[in-house]
Model the fold of this input.
Amino acid sequence: MVEKQPASLDLSEKTADAEQFGELAHERHEAIKNALENAERQHKEHHSSEREILAKAKDLADQAEEAAHDRQPAPAERRRTGPIHKKQLAESFKSQMKYAESEMNTSERILSRFLHSKPVEKSADALGSTVARPNAMLSGSIAAFVGVTALYFIAKYYGFQLSGSETIVTFVIGWIIGLLYDYFAVMIRGHKK
Done:
């Protein structure tokens, strides 16, 4: 019998230990649960304050943009942004050319300098404003295409050969028509603005 008492004591000690362990686990669970709820509450507060700050920043940015859009420049600013002078234009062109040439290899840089030299640019501008006008070139191209196509089918139908000069002749005819169109348009409407 003496041996049974310690066994029952062992069992009662084990149940007491299990109850204490359960209480400890329950307390630990409650502490973790409270800590998680606090962390979640702080996160929500922080997140809502971030949203409020972002909304205020967006409103301020919108107000600043509206104010900048509505603001009229001062007379001094209007005078400062007046017409561009030739010197400013030349400096701007030089800086843009330096930047563009820095992106090119040596052969491209040499060709660019040649094409943008004063004599070549002046002659290209003169040709573009007199002989190589856009309407004249377009009408010449269209006339060459339509004329050569028509002449080809006519030659094929009647059985004669084309000489090879048809393209040049039809282009020149269309080119002259385009020049005449430009001439009469300027006479009727006046010079371009």
Remarks:
- The chain is about 85% helix and 0% strand.
- The chain has a mean pLDDT of 82.
